[in-house]
Every structure is written in C-alpha cells, then in structure tokens.
C-alpha cells in the first residue's frame, strides 16, 4: 500500500485493527439507518424486559463489566468486556441483557439497523412469552 509522505501517520496503523466479530445478518431493509446507543446497568440490574428489534439486526460490544445475554433458541451466556455480540432482529426474542455481576456496572454499545418510522425495540407481552416458551433454550 502506498504511503503518503506528507503526514506523520503511524506506519503500522493497519496492525491496530482487531476483528472482534464478523457476521452476515439475515436481512437489512433497503431504507434502514443505523442507531448507536450506549447502555449502562448498575450492579445486579436485570436489564430490559424481553423484547425484539423488529426492523433489523443489532450489533454490540461490551465496554466494561459482564452482561448476561439470552436470545430465543440459544442458552444464556456471559459476554465480558472486550467481547462482541449480535442478534438477527426481526421476530427473534431477546430475553436477557442484564448485568451478570452484582459488584460492578455493565456498559455496552449497540448499533441497531432500523427502518424509519418503526420502533427500534418492541416489548414482548406475557401471552406471547407463554406461547413461545417451547422456543426458549433455557426454560426458567
């Protein structure tokens, strides 16, 4: 790659990149836009109630702490600072995103692909949770 000698750029800048996640999402709406949010939960917080991202996938990265992450069809798992996660969006229920620790906060950043005019997050009601219980990998 040609170097631009007019600037004092770091000659090793390309080595500064580390891929933490690479996925092919199932769908992206043609008119989607990206929304990036930072979420912070205090020690022991259970996080958001069960929900879905109907208009597109979400991609995240834990900045500090440890999140308990559970998607429909997958067992719950801990995602620690420095680790990435994603969810396909659409009809898939996101059951848990709470703080997995009771001694420190958790902070994570999420970029969601959203369709203008559609909500980026929709809560799932108790009746639907009961009807889809058989799709949950962990049956609490």
UniProtKB/TrEMBL annotation:
Organism (species): Mycobacterium intermedium
TM region positions: none
UniProt xrefs under Pfam families: Cupin_2 (PF07883)
Lineage: Bacteria, Bacillati, Actinomycetota, Actinomycetes, Mycobacteriales
Residue span, Cupin type-2 domain: 38-110
Protein name: Cupin
InterPro entries: Cupin_2, RmlC-like_jellyroll, RmlC_Cupin_sf
Domain of life: Bacteria
């Amino acid at each position: 790659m040609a170097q631009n000698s007019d600037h004092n750029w770091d000659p090793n800048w390309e080595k500064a990149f580390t891929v933490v996640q690479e996925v092919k999402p199932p769908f992206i709406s043609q008119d989607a836009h990206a929304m990036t949010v930072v979420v912070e939960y205090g020690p022991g917080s259970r996080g958001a109630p069960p929900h879905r991202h109907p208009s597109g996938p979400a991609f995240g990265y834990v900045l500090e702490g440890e999140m308990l992450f559970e998607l429909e069809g997958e067992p719950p798992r801990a995602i620690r600072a420095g680790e990435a996660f994603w969810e396909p969006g659409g009809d898939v229920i996101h059951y848990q995103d709470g703080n997995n620790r009771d001694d420190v906060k958790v902070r994570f950043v999420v970029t969601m692909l959203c369709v203008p005019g559609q909500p980026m997050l929709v809560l799932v009601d108790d009746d639907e949770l009961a009807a889809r219980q058989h799709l949950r990998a962990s049956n609490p």
